[in-house]
Design a protein that fits this description.
By secondary structure, the protein is an alpha/beta fold. The protein has helices spanning 2-56, 83-91, 105-123, 143-159, 180-190, 203-207, 218-234, 245-250, 255-262, 268-275, and strands at 71-76, 96-99, 167-172, 195-200, 240-244. The protein has a single domain (57-275), classed as Rossmann fold. Keywords: Coiled coil, Transferase.
Length: 281
């Protein structure tokens, strides 16, 4: 039996050799395919980065100058603080277009972007997700392209600067979000030259206004909100400025500091004319 077994093994050696050779060729081919896939992935990622860079150079149709030359200003405040009056003061400056409230729509852009980034970071691996994966595509969320398109959207639909606009922006009184600094970070990412103007008022007067009359906890709520807004704007450094309604109503020359921060000329007659005009509704 031993001779028979040896004879059988001898006859099978060529077959085993061919199987091993086939396996080696398959392994080598698989290695080459992996290298090609890696190369194509790198080329795709490079092309996407170039597309994102091109997107960042988009120019809004409403602006006469490139977007990089447009300064952006956000009025940060709460209801019944005199922010509409402040907005009018700013809009009286040549080249200023500061828009009013918009129900906090920019915060929804922040949520959209934050959730997309979170999902991308969770699922992005060394290799792209296949079409069979339930999160297919999110690993390739184009961050810079998304920011460029959101930036364009805000300028063209919310700010809508005129051809001669130098400074644009908006005021916002809705700050329900839990992490205000993170939201301001996002606004600065959209608009790297953005500045933030905090407007406050005597909170007891604000709490007694028609806006808060039915809220027994209005004063406590406003006190907490003002503290959070003050901290968030202060964290902007030189890009943040704080004015108080009661101060500039009592003495309009207090606004000189604001105008200096803005790099604008303080004109007492124009300021007096705006302050004498009834605002809000």
């Amino acid at each position: 039996m031993t001779r028979r077994l040896l004879a059988r093994v001898a006859r099978s050696l060529p077959y085993v050799r061919r199987v091993l050779e086939h396996r080696d060729r398959a392994v080598a081919q698989n290695h080459r395919l992996r290298e090609q896939v890696d190369l194509l992935t790198k080329q795709r990622d490079a092309a996407q980065r170039e597309a994102d860079k091109l997107a960042l150079g988009l120019v809004p149709s409403h602006a006469a100058e490139p977007l990089d030359d447009l300064q952006v200003l956000f009025i940060v405040t709460y209801g019944r603080s005199g922010s509409t009056l402040l907005m009018s003061l700013l809009d009286s400056l040549p080249g200023y277009v500061i828009r009013g409230e918009n129900a906090g729509v920019l915060y929804h852009l922040y949520e959209f972007h934050a959730k997309a980034l979170s999902a991308r970071d969770k699922w992005a691996k060394d290799k792209p997700l296949p079409p069979q994966h339930p999160w297919y595509g999110i690993d390739d969320y184009p961050q810079s392209l998304a920011l460029a398109r959101m930036r364009q959207l805000v300028v063209d639909t919310i700010f809508r600067p005129e051809p001669d606009t130098r400074v644009t922006g908006m005021k916002e009184i809705r700050w329900w979000m839990p992490n205000i600094p993170a939201y301001l970070d996002f606004l600065e990412t959209l608009f790297p030259r953005a500045r933030f103007l905090l407007n406050t008022r005597n909170l007891k007067d604000v709490a007694r206004s028609r806006w808060y009359a039915k809220n027994p906890d209005a004063l406590a709520h406003l006190t907490d909100l003002e503290a959070r807004l003050t901290s968030a704007v202060a964290s902007r450094g030189d890009r943040g400025y704080h004015i108080h309604y009661d101060d500039y109503i009592r003495d309009p020359t207090v606004l000189r500091g604001l105008f200096e921060w803005l790099g604008e000329e303080y004109e007492p007659d124009r300021v007096a004319r705006i302050l004498a005009t009834k605002h809000s509704f």
